[in-house]
Amino acid sequence: MYKRAISGLLFFAIILSAAAVVCAEDGPTKSNNIGKNNYADFSSTVKSYLVAQKDGSFMRVEAINGQVVIETYSSELQFESALLLKYELPLFGGFYEGTDSFFLVFGQENPAEDDATEVIRVVRYDKSWNRLSAASLYGANTAIPFEEGSLRMVQSGDFLYIHTCHEMYHLLNGINQQANLMLAVRISTMEVEECFDSVGDSSDGYVGRSFNQFIAADEDAILSVNHGNAYPRAVVLSRYALKTEESIFANNCVSVETLPIAGESGDYNTGTSVGGFEVSATSYLIAGNSADRAVNENMNAVRNIFVTSTLKTRFSADGTRCIWITNYPTDDSSYFGQVSTPHIVTVENGFLLLWTVKGRLNYVFLDDNGDMIGEIMSADAALSDCKPIVADGAVYWYCTQNSAPVFYCIDPEKPETVTEIPTEQQEQEEPTQPTEETGIMPYSEQEHEEICPSRFFSDVPGVDYWGHEGIDFVVENGLFNGMSATTFEPDTTMTRAMLVTVLWRAAGMPMQGTNPFYDVPENVWFTDAVKWASDCNLVNGMQEGKFCPQENITREQMAAILYRYAQYNAQDVSGMADLSAFPDELTVSGWAENAMCWAVAKGIIGGLQTGETTILLPQGNATRAQVATILMRFLQE
């Protein structure tokens, strides 16, 4: 039995937590969760949740900057009220709505590998968000909880089962191995009844290097899913039989490798991501994307959407099918990095599978066995790490892009239509537009129409659009390609790979440099650009050995790369602006401060107008239209 007595600590924590509940500002809290469902290598904890309440209203729960934002919206999805809860430990693990309670999980690092350190705290609230009690996990062979993975929960009877991951205490060779972690918390007493935190094997449900975790309850069993990078290297489905004995984890598991992944164990690049796990009447369905068609060796091909379906009556590899939902051409570089990690949600008479490709929502209905019902549909909509929910038969989710939430709805009566529902505040607010990045065309729209370089793109607005001139410039000079033959997607965020590729083209596409990044594969569209950028010291990577090519480029990252590019070309970079005029100047990272000061002084980067305030938004994502305008100014210097 794995229990800890913490009554004294709980009393003190309750007092602290009660003091931390305050009313939020009027109106929804802004955040940036768009695309956060997507990951290339390893996932992260889910920060955004939507709950349908019994009275027809909705509740948004989102972890933002050390606080859990809890907002209530009407049945028409208009903002009503909000509370803020401060994190009880520095790391956010997740949220779950139980039968009679809400649960939040927090954690903290344990670099000293001290068994007396609280590494995970599970906090229970009633349905009015009054704090009731908490369960704490100490030591637990955990140096860093939730590391390189996620956390999800499910309730079965009086137990809350938690599936997450951790970086374990170091081994004799000095390595801190990452693996999955399982917890069973008795809700009535809020005690940790069982914890599986050590190295094991398939009979324990152990997966070494688990990059994403899911969990579900099904009658007399608990099911878990791991995106395994090693030990085994596969998408793994595990079933634990519920029993009256003390342990349900150790030596009580049967596992199936539903999607084997080629390559060497421990190689970060699996070419795969996992986005959802659902239970049907007949099968267990896992949704994801993968380049691993027929278990080939090419982990860097274009990814396609898959669903694995494992029969309950044949819980084995023989009882498992992999159903490929899409068939995007693997040799078309325009699809590389453009197929997102999908969501799957249970709906009436089946399931709904949702993903984005080239920034556009795609979705299709599935039956209980994971086979498609009807054709794939598409819409101008986005996804986030908020898993879609079902309320009165309709499917809802929300996205934010440095903004208040935008809600989306798919009505079962009109499944071919996705409705976008802004909040009242968004309808009243002035749109966020660049103040110093507004292009004024020197000719009329009529004069410009016949010679416009971007005239073939249906989604580029006319000459009065602030980004039109920049888009014309990058298209005319061959720096940008369209996202398709007819779309430019000006509001789609720019990735790190895209930016260095544009600069590489501007430099004449030199063939030089070696590849220092293990997450940059050979012979893809951005390989030569990254080699060149690294050789010229324009990029240093995000972590040791990683470039993170598919991550969105932030405004300060872009400024830093352009600053280094100017130095590389022996340009004068001595001019520095005073950033104190911007209320968010302190949010500029130390390593990017000189670059941002230079970029503002040169007029390359301007402020963003939000209401009556002009901000820098250094960690904000840069859109293709913004980057086009900035590059035009930079390269015309």
Largest sheet features: 5 strands, antiparallel
Give the terminus-to-terminus CA distance. 69 Å
Strand content of the residues, in percent? 25-35%
What strand line-up does the widest sheet have?
1-6-5-4-3
The stretches of 5 or more residues where confidence is low (pLDDT under 50) are 1-24, 426-445
Q: How many whole angstroms does the radius of gyration measure?
A: 25 Å
Helical coverage, percent range: 10-25%
Mean pLDDT comes to 85
Instruction: Choose one word for the global shape.
Output: globular
Total helical segments:
9
Number of strands: 35
SS-based structural class?
Answer: alpha+beta
Describe the structure.
There is one protein chain. The protein is an alpha+beta fold and 637 residues long. The chain has nine helices and 35 strands. The strands form nine sheets. A five-stranded antiparallel sheet has the order 1-6-5-4-3. Strands 11, 12, 13, 14 and 15 form a five-stranded antiparallel sheet that branches. The N and C termini lie far apart (69 Å).
